[in-house]
Amino acid sequence: MTAEPIGEVVWAPDLVKQRKAGYTIEDVLALPDEAPRVELSDGVLIVVPSPSARHQKLNWRLASWLERHVPKGFEPQMAVGVAVDYTSTLEPDVLILHGPVDPDRHYFSPDQVVVAVEIVSPGTKRRDRLEKPGVYAAAGIQHFWRIELNPVHVFAYDLVDGRYELVADANDELVLEKPFEIRLPIRELAP
């Protein structure tokens, strides 16, 4: 048995379209299977780096815990996106959506999003801490959680007058009343 040779990367962004910031959500939906995971920022494709094993473990544990504990009418999801507008999309680590959710959709509108969660990784620090919160706030997403690793610490924000205000931060247990009462056992979820 012989191994097949690895060929060149089949897909890469169209440089002209990228320079003109000409990509749309339709282009993202039409990407081939071998294309990397991307976000769309004002018509420019941004490749989303693969998360570390620690990041993925926390992401999976958080989504699983939320699946068991959020009230009826809310649906946690991971590996789905937010269609901010025709030329901008985001791929948060976890979303809590107003349910029921169409299981065949990848992108959801900001008005369907209850909470957007970003787990900060070394390759996404700037975007997760500085850029994405502003985009989520401008889109009207009412609640945003930022999770730092090493050690795990959760910062929860509510949208107030168009910008996020910190309402809680914890490294042991996150206690919130909005968008629903929650006591998130952070230490149990930390990898």
Automatic annotation (TrEMBL):
Pfam families: Uma2 (PF05685). Residues 26-184 form the Putative restriction endonuclease domain. InterPro entries: Nuclease_put_TT1808, Restrct_endonuc-II-like, Uma2. It comes from the Bacteria. CDD domains: DUF820-like. PANTHER family: SLL1072 PROTEIN (PTHR35400:SF3), SLR1083 PROTEIN (PTHR35400). This is Putative restriction endonuclease domain-containing protein.
